[in-house]
Amino acid sequence: xxxxxxxxxxxxxxxxxxxSMKYVxxxxxxxxxxxxxxxxxxxxRAVLILGLGVYPNTGVIDAYATLRLGDExxxxxxSDALTDDRMNLSVGPLRITVDVPxxxxxxxCAADPDDPDGLxxxxxxxxxxxAVWEPHHVQRRGDxxxxxxxxxxxxxxVTGTIRAKGEEIHLAEGEWTGTRDRSWGVRPxxxxxxxxxxxxHRTEGFHWLWVPVRFEDRFLMVIVQEDADGHRxxxxxxxxxxxxxGRGDVQLGWxxxxxxxxxGSRHPESAVIHLTDPARKPLELGVEILNSSPLAVxxxxxxxxxxxxxxxxxxxxxxxxxxxxxxxxxxxxxxYGVTDHSARFTLEGRTGFGIFEHGSFGRHDPSGFTDYxxxxx
Length: 377
Fold this sequence. Notes:
This protein is 2% helix and 52% strand. By secondary structure, it is mostly beta strands.
């Protein structure tokens, strides 16, 4: 076995613990460090979701990309052994390049030589607003810490080309929007044990909204996490302005969402999020769903059954497939995972575009859902 040696990142004064940057300061197997990007058009035709994650205590790096076009979801996933080169954000055909930190990134998926009609892309992601912290996220099951994460979120513009199904889709300025989320900490990955905490502290219900919205002159971020009783564990509503505006962030109170669901489901079709400015003036953020992409299909989020983030697939694993989303019964677990909806938003005469990320499982008293089988009338 080779000797333990410093890695390139150890040259920089960025250490937070008396350890090499090769190691994290926790021995928890669920330690993670990852990102997610959303790229979507304003007409609701296409939603591209992609991300990359590192799991230092299991030695895994993986990445994914999914493209929703019509009733089809094209997916590319890749996984490999984590190396000491932590600046290299690439796995198989998928790569993210940080050109200018917090400002410009390049997103790339190489074409499959055996399937020229498969998904590939070359995209430049450029920020329009400064990155903003999300609330510190802590979640326990009984006394066991299950999740502790730090995140920032940002909105910007995207240019470049997506290739799929024999078509080249050009991302025109002003007709597409990009959002991204960057997070790290501890979050369950496959293989987590059950035990007493899982047996005696079962989740009765979970309700989640994560809503980044880009308007021409401001960025709006709303986050809500509630349990079955409606008790709120996470809360955020903030407006962020461009650096050149010289304005600080503005908090918008305690968001309350009225969601109109498709009958017989928990699929949102529209919503109004009620906000309050610092002068206590009521504000209404209108939401019109344009397109939808379930994260449990193709993107590796729980309760995906074919692949989940952080799971060891062996060295050099790559998987490409196409999912048919026309029949919800074909993907029954998608209803128990979070879904990312591209959406058109309105606020005080302004029109913006963003992501309405929604998950509602089990009992949620404020919505009138009584158990895991409960749906909208």
